[in-house]
Fold this protein.
Amino acid sequence: MQVLRTPDDRFNDLPDFPFAPHYVEIPAGDGSDAPLRVHAVDEGPRDAPVVLLLHGEPSWSFLYRTMIPVLTGAGLRAVAPDLVGFGRSDKPTERSDYTYQRHVDWMWATVEGLDLHDITLVCQDWGGLIGLRLVAEHPDRFARVVAANTFLPTGDRPAGDAFLAWQRFSQEVEDFTVGRIVNGGCTTDLSADVIAAYDAPFPDDAYKAGARQFPMLVPTSPDDPAAVPNRRAWEALRAFTRPFLCAFSDGDPITRGADHALRTEIPGCAGQPHTTIEGGGHFLQEERGPQLAAVVVDFVRTTSAS
């Protein structure tokens, strides 16, 4: 597996992102001895309750920059990894290096490498497709879950028109400009320096194999390689009784309505104060970060994993 590593100077002077980098080495999963290096923002007391913040496509931990101070200010430990292929994490160069299963395995290895327990998972977009698999497969590690603009598809239902349009765009567009794509998933235009920060991990197209491949890994047919593991995950989630909260925005055409399936199928959703966050698009952390963080803080304070 050939790997690129974004130069550190690409991350200098990013707006509202003063966090020191932290790294963990994990197995690449290709049968070699060479590890992958995964980056994570890790702020707050090490012995505080852990909030694991998982981003999706094509963002990185920068997405959580306005949430992290709210969480740590409330006495929580905020851990925001960059998925392999994104942010400061290593970037395999071949699209075939990226599979759904590898992303799940890579993130589980990261959780183990950071020795995280009693986790409050906050997951959006692919953060949910990966994170909900981890909850299903390792439920004892997770105290509670906050799902925000995400879902766990099995390919048994038709993908929505909005997702299929995004999938086609992601494969057909010649210039895959990450910052502009994130901007397009917001209800308001981002500033130039914020758009540039989303572009920072990707000096050129050679670094974008993971970002290009992600849309094609979403199960859209019943015989997709991830369909069976995701069906198993749903069976496990139907037995997950720990607190589970949906906090979706009102302006996301990609995941609109997915919260209904979560709230209906997962026992831990019963009786929880599910909320709709107004004024946010797909990337609600970008537009309504402090508001979402306040929801998370309140959820941690008022629920027990027992």
